[in-house]
Design a protein that fits this description.
The structure is a single chain. By secondary structure, the protein is an alpha/beta fold. Helices cover about 45% and strands about 15% of the residues. It has a 7-stranded parallel β-sheet with strand order 3-4-2-5-6-1-7, with helices on both faces. A 6-stranded parallel β-sheet has the order 8-13-12-9-11-10, sandwiched between helices. The N and C termini lie far apart (about 55 Å). Bound molecules: adenosine-5'-diphosphate (ADP) and zinc ion. The site of adenosine-5'-diphosphate (ADP) has 14 residues, from α3. GO terms for molecular function: 3'-5' DNA helicase activity; ATP binding; DNA binding; four-way junction helicase activity; hydrolase activity; metal ion binding. It is an enzyme of class 5 (isomerase).
């Protein structure tokens, strides 16, 4: 069977070798065993179900996918390679769909792409008369509430095993932590599935986090990326529709070719934006999380997160859209406490507080870490990496340590003197002795620590306060207007004057752009 699989790979796809795991997955499925396949985007999942479809003589391979827009491309690519494939979905006329469903029974179609809702409509009609050799469930994380893209239609797919208990099911996804993975297998009623986990490492994508850059710094940075990769493209992910719109307008105003994409646009507008991006009419898309599922564009060279994402799965999937050709790509996240506060609000409304809050915390740890970022990312997916990556900001520019005792004491005593009633920004203003109206109205210019931290800039204080939070000396009370508090541990440090070590704040490095201007 292995030789036949390799022969099919050469003949139909023109590749000489399988990537790791592909052959194992193919032979396991072809032998009739259920599989869970976890492989990053661009890892080569499609071949894992397409080749088994070619290996078996009779029967059709049914591929369930929520990405209706992409089915056509897949079918076109397959038929161009001489593989009889077709799709049934709501983007085609009923006559077309009907025609294809008829042809299924003649055995001429080897691979059928179908949306979950349509499959559930048809399946009772087919019942057992249609020989199915394999059922592949793409984007299988959609079945799980633990996943980040839950789709209720998917949960009814458990019917498949009831109706076709002997047909192997292959569940494929690019994003699933352990909980989601187990949930997928359970909900689809898989029987003793073989689980395959491909490496999530994408070493060609450099990783970087910028702590709380200002608006103009953000724009300059994005402009620098567009200039650096002027013939390729990039994505700016924004936290809301509004901020995606405003980012788009800023970039258009700077003369760049940009387009906006979010779920508030009509389907036509979204399709047009996506097409313009895929065709290379625009250099950048400013988008919300609504953008990108199934995007297969090889020359996306950079991804900027204008805000921190909700969890590491989303982040990983979003940056994974860059560098799919294996060539160098850049992923940068702008991060600020304002993001955490907004995201914490989303978590509170999510109805899944415990898990989502934990996931948000892990994302925050990634953003604030002074350890190799790739190690953190991979360890999240239970992959171990025993060396630093050398391609993230921490590796390239390791933080220097310094004595932060005085800084910690000033910050904590300012929090105590304001009775834990101020947030991040105002605390910095107090420490820096800013003469802002509401600060003065509240009498904070008369406390002892007012101006005690004048020697440090706003970004320095921002970094050190973040670190004090990470160290557990101070905390943000999310349920009390995000006011800062000294923790019990912080109080002990304050009392005992325990030495505190902090990572030295570093100015964002300056780089020359193609135009020779100084840019951040
Ligand atoms: P996924 O569905 O996991 O995101 P795809 O199945 O779309 O990934 O594959 C990504 C790209 O990798 C495609 O261009 C595909 O043709 C290519 N590819 C897959 N398997 C191989 C292989 N064995 N050798 C070379 N290229 C491959
Ligand atoms: Zn690293």
């Amino acid at each position: 069977m292995k030789e036949r699989a390799v022969a099919l790979l050469r003949r139909f796809y023109g590749y000489s070798e399988f990537r790791p795991l592909q052959l194992d997955i193919i032979t396991t499925a072809a032998c009739g065993r259920d599989c869970v396949v976890l492989m990053p985007t661009g890892g080569g999942k499609s071949i894992c179900y397409q080749i088994p479809a070619l290996l078996t003589d009779g029967g059709v391979t049914v591929v369930v996918s929520p990405l209706i827009a992409l089915m056509k491309d897949q079918v076109t690519a397959l038929t161009a390679n001489g593989i009889p494939a077709a799709a049934v979905n709501s983007m085609q006329t009923e006559a077309e769909n009907h025609n294809i469903l008829q042809q299924l029974f003649t055995g001429r179609i080897k691979i059928l792409y179908i949306s979950p809702e349509r499959l559930l409509m048809e399946i009772d009609r087919w019942s057992r008369d249609l020989p199915i050799s394999l059922i592949a469930i793409d984007e299988a994380h959609c079945i799980s509430q633990w996943g980040h893209d839950f789709r209720p239609d998917y949960t009814r797919l458990s019917r498949l095993k009831e109706l076709y208990p002997h047909v192997p099911v292959m569940a494929l996804t690019a994003t699933a932590d352990r909980l989601t993975r187990d949930d997928i297998a359970r909900q689809l009623c898989l029987r003793d599935p073989a689980t395959f986990i491909g490496s999530f490492d994408r070493p060609n994508i450099s990783l970087r986090v910028m702590n709380n850059p200002g608006k103009s710094q953000r724009l300059r940075y994005i402009a620098m990326l567009i200039d650096r990769y002027r013939h390729d493209s990039g994505i700016v992910y924004c936290i809301s529709r509004k901020s995606a719109e405003s980012m788009n307008n800023e970039l258009l105003g700077m003369g760049y070719k940009s387009v906006v994409y979010h779920a508030g646009l009509s389907i036509e507008e979204r399709n047009r934006a996506q097409d313009r991006f895929i065709n290379g009419d625009v250099q950048v898309v400013c988008a919300t999380v609504a953008f990108g599922m199934g995007i297969d564009k090889s020359n996306i060279r950079w991804v900027v997160h204008n805000n921190m994402p909700r969890n590491i799965e989303s982040y990983y999937q979003e940056i994974g859209r860059a560098g799919r050709d294996g060539v160098k790509a850049e992923a940068t996240m702008f991060y600020s406490y304002a993001d955490i506060i907004t995201l914490q609000g989303f978590v509170d409304e999510s109805g899944q507080q415990a898990i989502n809050s934990e996931k948000l915390k892990r994302m925050q740890e990634y953003a604030e870490s002074s350890l190799c970022r790739r190690r953190i990312l991979l360890s999240y997916f239970n992959e171990t990496m025993d060396h630093d990556c050398g391609n993230c900001d921490v590796c390239l520019n390791p933080p220097e340590r310094m004595d932060g005792t005085v800084i910690a004491l000033k910050a904590m005593s300012a929090i105590i003197r304001t009775e834990g009633k101020v947030g991040f920004t105002m605390l910095i203003d107090i420490l820096r002795g800013a003469s802002k109206r509401d600060l003065i109205d509240r009498g904070y210019d008369r406390i002892k620590t007012y101006g005690a931290g004048r020697d440090l800039s706003y970004p320095e204080w921002n970094s050190y306060l973040s670190q004090l939070i990470q160290l557990g000396l101070i905390d943000i009370a999310y349920n009390e207007n995000n006011h800062l508090k000294v923790t019990a541990y912080g109080a002990i440090v304050l009392r005992d004057r325990t030495p505190v070590t902090l990572a030295q704040y570093k100015e964002p490095e300056r780089r020359k752009t193609a135009r020779g201007r100084k840019e951040v």
